[in-house]
Amino acid sequence: MYGKFLYLLGLAFTLFIVVMFISYLFRSGFSGILKFFFSRLLIISFVITVCLIAGIGIYSAINGTDPMETLLYLKEMVQKELSFL
Predict the structure, then answer these.
(1) What is the pTM of this model?
(2) 14-19 long-range Cβ contacts below 8 angstroms, 24+ apart
(3) Domain residue limits, the chain
(4) Confidence class of residue 28 from pLDDT cuts 50, 70 and 90?
């Protein structure tokens, strides 16, 4: 359940960023693209989210597992690494 929540949250965040980008294009025209990309925090968070979702999808496809199983596996690995805290 926790893995599904994180996965859906990542997808929702990605869709939110894409919708913001499209709405910005229509509002300010194509000359506004540079202003949008200069918003570093927004573009970095978009790239990280896309890379995370793509990485989970590729890892799942290579290993033949469900993406939710991959998320649970990643969660267990992170918990194991942070167990010393």
Answers:
(1) 0.47
(2) 14/46, 14/49, 14/50, 14/53, 17/42, 17/45, 17/46, 17/49
(3) 2-81
(4) low
